[in-house]
From TrEMBL:
GO terms for molecular function: DNA binding; sigma factor activity. Residues 122-173 form the RNA polymerase sigma factor 70 region 4 type domain. PANTHER family: BLL0085 PROTEIN, BLL6612 PROTEIN-RELATED. This is RNA polymerase subunit sigma-24. It comes from Ramlibacter montanisoli. SUPFAM superfamilies: Sigma2 domain of RNA polymerase sigma factors, Sigma3 and sigma4 domains of RNA polymerase sigma factors. GO terms for biological process: DNA-templated transcription initiation. Residues 191-291 form the DUF6596 domain.
């Protein structure tokens, strides 16, 4: 019984943790303290729910409990004079004990400025006082609820490095006593690139999870998509904002077709395109058109253009791989990256044959950043299999499976290795 309750708590926490931290950060003006108070609310749920039962509105219960703890913290915090008056004037802080649901609180907050605590949290965590790497790591931790392990895999850097970045970032923000707000004018422009990077990485983690037993984490992808749509509203003249939104809309359109009934991955070439969401495809193509009309040719616009090639193809054989390979070439010239080059290798292999793609992949074998990147041996295995080099392909798939942190991904790679064993 307790196990089922704990699973329910974990599920609610995954969905609501970021919103709770965001609301608390606005109340206490300290993201580190906000995260600690949110964790206190989680501990309270672990204590009370197994005994009292799961409340009718578990998200609201967590939010209300967290706010009470925030108010207790503020009362104990030796706040004097002006600071106490500032907190006392916060309508939501005054009403924290009486808000029946956190959704109502967010709706009330939207009346001023941008009106979304999650956006305030992103822009605060992306303040220029932090390094770019620290901004991204901290925001992924607070907004996406990603573990240090997941962030490390997303960035291809050691886990202790990420942990240190997060600790230092929270300390720096606390010491700087920064305003908890969405910036305006030139300051908005300065921080926008980092914010877009954060949203992009959160979406990627939701689209293909780096760890765990699920191929996707839809709640993360949906949250990133929601934030992308809001960013498009507050920065309507920024082509990269629309480019990122287009990319996420187009990628999201495939999510229903990316797994079978048992949750097992279905690769792009094998997907039933009738299951792709036509509305999201339409929205994505429209966002890409807006980005290009604004003169956009940056990283997100380019990736959206690649996704659009897939979206426009009625079947896998109709995909314009030559165009995709050319777009990846332009993207690699603009933003050199071994991961982009690996994607270009796949497109080249489809346009010119597996031998041409393999030549690129073999050149990437010595890249330090790809040393533990499972997709390098995975792509190599696919190309070797297409060339009829089954024993080498099987070894490559086994290597990729050993590196995979996601259970579904590992199963897929092992299954491909087994197929080659039977066929050889």
């Amino acid at each position: 019984m307790h196990s089922a309750t704990h699973q329910a708590i974990a599920a609610v926490w995954r969905l609501d943790a970021a919103r709770i931290v965001a609301v608390l950060a606005r109340m206490v003006r300290d993201v580190g303290v906000a995260e600690e108070l949110a964790q206190d609310a989680l501990v309270a749920a672990l204590e009370h729910w197994p005994r009292d039962g799961i409340p009718d509105k578990p998200g609201a219960w967590l939010m209300t409990t967290a706010k009470r703890k925030a108010l207790d913290h503020l009362r104990r915090g030796k706040m004097q004079g002006e600071k106490l008056a500032e907190v006392g004037s916060d309508l939501e802080a005054q009403e924290a004990l009486f808000v029946p649901d956190f959704v109502d609180a967010l709706d009330a907050a939207r009346q001023d400025d941008i009106g979304d605590d999650l956006l305030r949290l992103i822009f605060t965590a992306c303040h220029p006082v932090l390094s770019t790497e620290a901004r991204v790591a901290l925001t992924l931790r607070l907004l996406g609820g990603l573990t240090t392990h997941e962030i490390a895999r997303a960035y291809l850097v050691p886990e202790p490095t990420i942990a240190q970045r997060i600790v230092r970032a929270k300390r720096t923000l606390s010491d700087a006593r920064l305003p908890y707000e969405v910036p305006h004018g030139e300051e908005l422009q300065e921080r926008l690139a980092s914010v877009l990077e954060v949203v992009y990485l959160v979406f990627n983690e939701g689209y293909t999870a780096t760890a765990g037993e699920d191929w996707m984490r839809p709640e993360l992808a949906n949250e990133a998509l929601r934030l992308g749509r809001m960013l498009a509203e507050i920065a309507p003249r920024e082509p990269e904002v629309h480019g990122l939104l287009a990319l996420m809309e187009l990628q999201s359109s495939r999510m229903a077709a990316r797994t079978d009934a048992q949750g097992r991955p279905i690769l792009l070439a094998d997907q039933d395109r009738k299951r792709w969401d036509a509305l999201l495809v339409h929205r994505g193509l429209a966002a890409l058109e807006r980005a290009q009309a604004l003169g956009g040719s940056g990283m997100y616009v380019m990736q959206a253009a690649i996704a659009a090639c897939h979206a426009r193809a009625r079947s896998a054989p109709e995909t314009d791989w030559a165009r995709i390979a050319a777009l990846y070439g332009e993207l690699a010239a603009q933003s050199p990256s071994p991961v982009i080059e690996l994607n270009r290798a796949v497109a080249v292999s489809m346009a010119e044959g597996p031998a041409a793609g393999l030549a690129i992949v073999d050149r990437l074998a010595q890249e330090p950043a790809l040393r533990r990147y499972q997709w390098l041996p995975s792509v190599r295995g696919d190309l070797l299999a297409r060339l009829g080099r089954s024993a080498e392909a099987r070894a490559a798939f086994l290597e990729a499976a050993a590196l995979a942190g996601n259970g579904r991904e590992r199963e897929l790679l092992l299954a491909r290795a087994r197929l080659l064993t039977r066929s050889s």
